[in-house]
Amino acid sequence: MRFFMKYIFPPLYGLLAYFTIRLLADSVSGMLFWRRSWTLNGIEMAFSAIMGYVFIWAYNRLFAYYDRRWQHDFSSKRIGQEVLGVFLINLLVQNIFLTPMVALTDDGLQWYDLVDVNLIPLFYALIYYGVRRSHLYFQAYVQNRLQLEKITNDKLETELKFLRAQYHPHFLFNALNTIYFQMDDDVVAAKKTVEQFADLLRYQLYDQQEMVGIQQEIQYMQRFIDLQKIRSSPRLRLQLHFDEQLQDEKVYPLLFLPLVENAFKYIGGDYLLQLELRKQGADICFLVQNSIPAAAPEIEGLPVAREKGIGLENLQRRLELLYQDRHYFSAGIKEQQFVAELKLTLPP
Questions:
Q1: Residue-range domain boundaries for the chain
Q2: Which stretch is the leader sequence (predicted)?
Q3: pTM summary value
Q4: pLDDT digits (tens, 9 = 90+) for 105-127
């Protein structure tokens, strides 16, 4: 292919321009150039072939110049300057090679000859420019899109890591606080709590952009609930239901936990806490309901709160990043209960 473009294509390009001009000129003058002297035709075709080499060489030099000067700039200004360069090359080269040939043969240089000499090669030059440069600009467009997607993904990954970093101190504070109060009453129980805490912390070290099995999330929640029960009121009434249909489904980790933690944090009144995780068609549905005190404090993440905490607000942002257009989340107070519902649509 390189041999063809370097040695075969240039003379074909020049001859195409020459024959097109000849056909148009003869259609106006009534001449038939193939009835002329073949010696004269051969000289003109030789000059046209040489002109083709000069054209392609000049175009390549022009393109190489702009590729070096504006390597990553594909603005309209660059394209405009390249097209202007192609126009000037044509104006110069075609008038050096073709205009003298037309003027010195047949009936001399007529106005229509001058129009043909200047327009026909320019027409082919613009076609050549479009075909040649469109490939480069398309590659640049693809590279720019890939670079933009990479930057976007890097930004989202950074944000997810930041959200995760926000959550860890929140979790650590609550867990350590539980262990602290146990140390005075029951050292053995405190040691067991430390082991549970270590298991929970180990799970949280997973990359939040890697999906895990739903059973791992269920086991994690159960361990977390066991840890929370230690510091909860003896009046706590806990109702758990995990759908047995949930087996091999994959989810992003630590999306259910903020709702569980929020329920333990604000439970009061009748101290009833209900958790339900079930499969519903293509969705995984998680429902958390907890009773609240008659004079309910401002609950984190609710519209009535003056300042949102990091828990539910953090969760909402992670859902937008990880399950864009594939989740439903609501949280609010209904009849002295705080109700939070989360639905995740599984990929097909």
A1: 2-149, 186-345
A2: none
A3: 0.53
A4: 766 667 767 788 888 888 888 88
